[in-house]
Amino acid sequence: MKDFLVPTPKTIVELIKPAIIKRLTVEKRGQGEGKHYKPFLTVRDVPSKGRVHRRPALTHGRIVHLLSDLELSTFLLFDWDFSVTDIKEQFPLDPEKTAKISERLGIRHPAVSGVTQVMTTDFLLDTLENNKVVQVAISVKYSEELEDARVIEKQELERRYWESLGIQWFLFTEKEVPFTLIQNIKWLIPHMYSYDLNKITQLEVFNIINEAILTYPSDKIAAVMKSLDEKNKVDGGTYLSYLRHLLAQNAFTWDLINIDHKSLYTLDLKASEFWVAKEYEYVHVQ
C-alpha cells in the first residue's frame, strides 16, 4: 500500500500540486506505524466546518488529528476498543489507483482548481481477530452530507478502492454514535492516568472498594465512597477518585452503553475477574 509514495508515477506527478507531493515523499505523511505514523492531513492543513481536535490516543500514545466532533466520537469508540491495536487517521489513498477507479466508473476524480487531490480515508484500523491482524477502513460523514450526490460519488470511489485491496470499508454517521457510551468514555479517559499505583497499592485499593460494593450492593456510589473516606480517615473524595481510576483501568465494569456514569449504583458495578485473579494488566502513566 505504500509503494505509490516513492516513486510517484509521472502522470500523477504532473497532476498533483508539488506541496502535496512533498507531504508524501519528503514529510512521509501517511507512513509509519503506531506512534510513528504521520497523518496525511493535520488540523492545520484543512478548513473544518466544525471544531477540530488534537488529543493523545490510548492505543499508541500519539497525538491524533481529528477534523470534526463526529471524528472525535468515532475515534473514542475505537481507541477504547481493546481489539484495536493501531489507528491511522487521515490515511492517503494511492492516487494512481483512485484515478483508474474514477475513470472506470465515470466519476470525476476530486480536484481543486484543476489540481488532482489525494483522497484520504478518515481512519484505517488494525484489529485483532482470532490472533490475526485485520485492517478495517472507516469513513466518517454527517448524515446530511450524504444528501449531496457528489459526496456519494466520492464515497463510492473510496469504497471501491478498499474493496480492490480486500479491506472492509464502513461508513459511520452520527446515527451510529451511542451517545451514553461516548459520554462514559469521555468521562473515563482522563482518569486512566490520574494515579500511577504500585502493585501492592493497586490491589489494596481494589480490595477495599470491592468489599464495600459487596457490603452495600444497592447504594449510590458517591455515598459508599464517602463512607470509605471516613472509615480510612482520608480527605473527602479520595476513594471516589480511586474508583474513577480503577473504572478507567477496567478493574470494575458496568453497562457503558445504557447506564450513564452519573447514575451509577453499586449494583451496576462488577469486579473484573482478571483483577480478582490478579492476572490483570495495569496501564502505567506514559
Explain what this protein looks like in three dimensions.
With 286 residues, the protein is α+β, with helices and mostly antiparallel strands. The chain folds into 2 domains: 10-177, Trna Endonuclease, Chain: A, domain 1; 181-276, Winged helix-like DNA-binding domain superfamily/Winged helix DNA-binding domain (Arc Repressor Mutant, subunit A). 37% of the residues lie in helices and 17% in strands.
Short summary:
This protein has 10 helices and 10 strands. The protein is of the alpha+beta class and 286 residues long.
Write the topology of this structure.
Layout: H1 10-15, H2 18-25, E1 53-56, E2 63-66, H3 69-80, E3 84-92, H4 95-105, E4 111-112, E5 115-116, E6 120-129, E7 132-140, H5 149-164, E8 168-172, H6 179-188, H7 199-215, H8 221-231, H9 238-248, E9 252-253, E10 270-271, H10 273-276
Helix pairs in contact: 3-6, 4-5, 7-8, 8-9
